[in-house]
Amino acid sequence: EEVNMEQFLHRIINKFGGIAKENGVELKGNFEVHDIVVKLDPDRIEQVLTNLIDNAIRYTPENGHVIITLTKTVNGVNISVQDNGAGIPAEDLPFVFERFYKADKARTRGRAGTGLGLAIAKNIIDAHNGQISVQSKLGNGTTFSFNLPQ
Ligand code: ATP
Ligand code: MG
């Protein structure tokens, strides 16, 4: 399905507006390109973004922020979800996309998940011929980023 990425991301950001507000986290979009259309499975990519945003809000303390950035790449788009929350220990980073991986429970605010969200996200991005990666610094925040070919 051909999807207008800006409209698509706006809708997902609006969906999470209430949850972000309840947690005292500012959620915002940063669109560096407009009117870009990508062929993708909207339900599956929404599932990826839902997990990344849910994680970002869950691991970001009050007064923090979560920023969704859309940029153009040579052959498609890149979407990143950046937070300024708890971060992930360097030694754990290689394992975050593995099934059932969960970092230190003490850092989790509210409900603890099953540890499947990122493994599912990686499967979905792989199926779209994209790549997903993570950058994080403990105590400073985390950025998950994925690209999709057009
Ligand atoms: P599920 O998504 O299945 O409900 P989950 O959120 O625990 O459970 P994942 O989404 O796969 O599982 O995330 C795995 C682990 O990676 C999390 O439990 C957490 O320890 C860590 N993590 C993920 N995103 C972040 C983030 N933005 N900041 C800090 N830690 C994170
Ligand atoms: Mg999750």
TrEMBL record:
<feature type="domain" description="Histidine kinase">
    <location>
        <begin position="1"/>
        <end position="150"/>
    </location>
</feature>
<protein>
    <recommendedName>
        <fullName>histidine kinase</fullName>
    </recommendedName>
</protein>
